[in-house]
Amino acid sequence: MTITIFSVTGCVRCKIAKNFMSEQGISFVEKNMKEEGKEDFQAFYKANRNAIFRGPEGIEFPIIYDGENIRQSIGAVMAFLYHGKKLDGFFSVGTMHKEWVDGIHVSGGNPKYTEEFLEVLRFLKNNNFKLQVDTNGKNSSILKRIFEENLADVLIMNVLGPEKLYGQLAGEEIDIEDVKRSLALIPEFPKFKIQTTIVPVTREDGTVNYLTPEEIGETAKFIEEGTGTKKNPYVIKAFNPKTSSNPAYKSLEPLENLFPYRSKARMYQVFTEIEN
Amino acid sequence: MSGENILYHKEHTWAKIEGEQVRVGISDYAQDQLGELIFIELPEVGAEFRQGEVFGQAESTKTVSALHMPISGEVIAVNEDLENDPELVNNDPYGKGWIILVEPHDLKESDNLLTKEEYINLLKG
């Protein structure tokens, strides 16, 4: 199986991926979309445009394709080159540039592959990248290893909501003690941020509405109890209904006034701010 | 064709009246802003659009831009050369890079479009 790597002239991340494949003896062919690979890239794009991710600055490179799987951006590409699909969920397409790599999700992958996941993080760090890692609290044991090895330059914890709704908001069964263990670790990281997006919830009676200010207050209390402090950098954000794949959520009006939420949150997280 | 005898929609599409039909493309400014195009999403022949409505999309590695109908009408032809060579739009935006051919509903709608001078003034801000 030969991998095609779509690159762009001057793309340092593309070079890192190519060098890795060369060193590992992975058969590959390079198509530079600014040069001789232009037509090949156009054909590939035409056939796969719905699967190709665009960040704020355009299409993210490098892109690799093995005839079946497409992976984009350095984190997801290296994860696939190292371990194939095992690390799916841990990496998505990152949109940060220069020395930063994001799209790294502690809670997104299978903890059975912790060592493999850490291996890729070490590779990225050894290539002088700074890593922005995020978690929703699941997989605290992996977070602990990341902390011990200093593999996250910035850690973002997405606290999904109050304890009672956590599993529903995560869309899966969640061990809340695991989340608490993650919360306890957060303040140890040199640079971190905690955030909550005020998302819609389907209630027991079937109605759909946003998390309430009181529920955000409970979330902030959950953070205080877990981290042991009211003084964390904490932001609350409005949900964008247009981004939802759920038709019931898509039709909601966006929340405009987050001040009641901030007021409730500040009872337990005194530095709560609203992020636009 | 250098852009003469062409009218412009404020969203950077141009319209050239050719008898009963109108040929449509994007301006030189627009193609330059987009960069090298890698894909043009073309409408179906037979589709109808109102003036100002989005009829397709132009995509480069940098960005994606909606294409706005300069005059209401029915699409009677699309430039099939763009399927395999979207860069025709970059290289010859007013000639070989035309995008669609339209049978207009009402040619008087062209009164709503900009002359070349007005379009240039628009770009100057």
- Distance from first to last alpha carbon of chain A: 45 Å
* Biggest sheet architecture of chain B: 6 strands, antiparallel
Tally the beta strands of chain A: 14
SS elements, strand count of chain B: 9
Biggest sheet architecture of chain A: 6 strands, parallel
Strand order of the largest sheet of chain A: 7-8-9-10-13-14
What does this structure look like?
The complex is a heterodimer of chains A (276) and B (125). Chain A starts with a strand and ends with a strand. Chain A is 35% helix and 21% strand. A 6-stranded parallel beta sheet of chain A has the order 7-8-9-10-13-14, covered by helices on one side. Chain A has a 4-stranded mixed beta sheet with strand order 2-1-5-6, sandwiched between helices. A two-stranded antiparallel sheet of chain A has the order 3-4. Chain A has a domain at 159-276: 2-Layer Sandwich (Transcription Regulator spoIIAA), CATH 3.30.750. Chain A is of the alpha/beta class and 276 residues long. In chain A, β7 (100-105), α4 and β8 form a beta-alpha-beta unit. The longest helix of chain B has 9 residues, at 116-124. Chain B has a single domain (7-107, 115-124), classed as OB fold (Dihydrolipoamide Acetyltransferase, E2P) (Beta Barrel), CATH 2.40.50.100. In chain B, the strands form 2 sheets. A 6-stranded antiparallel beta sheet of chain B has the order 1-2-3-9-8-5. Chain B has a 3-stranded antiparallel beta sheet with strand order 4-6-7. Chains A and B meet through α2 and β4 of A and loops of B.
Describe the structure concisely for a colleague:
Chain A is of the alpha/beta class and 276 residues long.
Pick out its properties.
heterodimer; A: 276 residues; alpha/beta; Transcription Regulator spoIIAA; six-stranded parallel sheet; four-stranded mixed sheet; 14 strands; 35% helix; 21% strand; globular; B: 125 residues; alpha+beta; OB fold (Dihydrolipoamide Acetyltransferase, E2P); six-stranded antiparallel sheet; 4 helices; 35% strand
